[in-house]
């Protein structure tokens, strides 16, 4: 079996860790690919930073800082203090020393002509991840946020500096119109037995992956069922500030509302199935009514066991969606 | 008075520190400029490194590692270890964390369109140096070494990795033919009251500065006397491995031989005057015979006092050279 996950960042990392754990325990021959959002990558201090990718890389390698929730464990910030002295780093964005090694390597490779896919492969080769990461696109995308007073700022400034507290009016992905999906991303989607949409930020992680021209079409054309996992449980985001992003696009912070935002595949949307937390069991019928197979399960990704269970539940839901309708053939799918 | 020093690296830093000390004590209105060699700058790990400049910067700022002789004091190497893991740094070239801050800033500025002169100005503004540093050129030069077995390697590889132990056949400054002197360097030379050639490596520090097309001519045209300070004392280099460089160009490691290599200004060479150590008093007559005013003085730059004395002696020798001949008019100069 081949499982392809779409997402990025810490929520995705936790879900993929669970999927990897499930595969290790029960399907050792299965393969896991992740199509990773690149739209919150940015240039700072002359270096290319890729937050969604690096969160995945570090977490899957087991070198992430679990307490802080981002970056490397055992991190220090000696270089960052120097960059602040030189005035080349915004004071609100801290680059750890170990983390900087990654950014310097990535930037050196990119400057030497490597693609983002090449960079992913080189970074991924350091540890035994058990998972293959693909950028959604090799082309450069930069997300900017238009805030309510009309100011336009880089997504990272809005997200990190302002903690997403400035009401946002819109997100603009600069460069996305000319971007093309990476070969690895397309192949991972086309050959997937199940496509899983991670409990990542629907607006700035999952959204931009699908907005790369050709990617939404590739997912729609995949014979695999598409199962989404809600990152909203009981009306609140599990982590991060996705609620601020959802508000900006007029979507309620609610598991059913996110499913509706993604849409039923049978109606030209993304999802064959949607998995919500037990806390949202009451909304199952509402999502099912959209034409999306829905299950409410214990959704908290607390540890290896609970995360593996969530992955197993998602795959069971995929089987249910597959048997209910012939994926890839919307007319044959149950509504 | 305006004193312009030509050189780069630690030997230059010690001499300039002494000159600055002398100026502070006895000529508080005097100005010091340094025209710095850029030919051993290089790209490593995607970052632009400028060893001759940074040695000067750190030493003049008082943040240099005096015991080790290079880099920042209180240095650590966390990022460097990561770069080695990523395979983007040669194992033989260590980049300290604090030092990396400088390289990241420099690279970011250069990538954003700053000139090397701009970078010098920004780096120099952090501390009160009391000295203005100018790159010999804003154009990129890379020095390669041809070793006896015919291999060609970057100067830093030869210098740092092989500790200059592979006999060298030639040094090639890639890009130097198309380089032009920086505006700051030209101005510092043209307006100097005394031009001082630092006790830097004659082959790979002083040599490339003068080899930038137009620079040797600018020094020759300067009305100021040109006084060189020997970096060879008693037949040995004071520090570093300049002897290996001198051997490659067929010059003996000898104070008089270096003076002869630089040549008398009256005969189309560089020097009006040459200052050697007491250890080389016997060679004074030989250098004088070349048409170069020569003095033997205590030349070891041990501390603030001894370094200031060396600077004072060099300036006294400049006055002697100036009174002996009308600088800038070779015909009027004593031979």
TrEMBL record, chains A, B:
What GO terms are given for molecular function?
Answer: transferase activity
A Pfam family annotated for this UniProt entry = CofD
Please verify whether the record's keywords include Transcription.
no
Q: Keyword annotations for this protein?
A: Magnesium, Transferase
Superkingdom of the source species: Bacteria
Name the SUPFAM superfamilies for this protein: CofD-like
Q: Which InterPro entries match?
A: CofD, CofD-like_dom_sf, FbiA/CofD
Q: What name does UniProt use for this protein? A: 2-phospho-L-lactate transferase
């Amino acid at each position: 079996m081949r499982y392809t996950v779409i997402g990025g960042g810490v929520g995705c990392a936790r879900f993929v860790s669970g999927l990897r754990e499930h595969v290790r325990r029960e399907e050792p021959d299965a393969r896991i690919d992740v199509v990773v959002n690149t739209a919150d990558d940015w240039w700072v201090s002359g270096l290319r930073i890729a937050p969604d990718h690096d969160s995945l890389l570090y977490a899957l390698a087991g070198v992430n800082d679990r307490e802080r929730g981002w970056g490397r464990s055992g991190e220090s910030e000696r270089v960052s203090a120097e960059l602040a002295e030189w005035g080349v780093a915004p004071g609100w964005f801290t680059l750890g020393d170990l983390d900087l090694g990654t950014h310097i390597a990535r930037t050196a490779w990119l400057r030497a002509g490597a693609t983002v896919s090449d960079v992913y492969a080189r970074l991924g080769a350091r540890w035994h991840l058990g998972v293959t990461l693909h950028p959604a696109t090799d082309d450069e995308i930069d997300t900017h946020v238009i805030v309510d007073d009309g100011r336009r700022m880089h997504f990272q400034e809005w997200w990190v500096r302002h903690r997403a507290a400035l009401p946002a009016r819109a997100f603009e992905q600069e460069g996305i119109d000319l971007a093309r999906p990476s070969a690895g991303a397309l192949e991972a989607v086309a050959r997937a037995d199940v496509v899983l949409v991670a409990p990542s930020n629907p607006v700035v992680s999952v959204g931009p992956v699908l907005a790369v021209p050709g990617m939404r079409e590739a997912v729609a054309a995949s014979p695999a069922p598409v199962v989404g996992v809600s990152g909203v449980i009981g009306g609140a985001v599990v982590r991060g500030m996705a609620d601020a992003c959802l508000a900006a696009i007029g979507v309620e912070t609610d598991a059913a509302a996110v499913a509706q935002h993604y849409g039923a595949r049978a109606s030209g949307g993304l999802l064959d199935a949607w998995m919500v937390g037990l806390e949202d069991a009451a909304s199952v019928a509402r999502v099912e009514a959209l034409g999306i197979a829905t299950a409410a399960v214990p959704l908290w990704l607390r540890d290896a066991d609970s995360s593996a269970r969530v992955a197993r539940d998602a795959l069971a839901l995929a089987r249910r969606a597959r048997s209910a309708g012939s994926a890839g053939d919307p007319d044959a799918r149950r509504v």
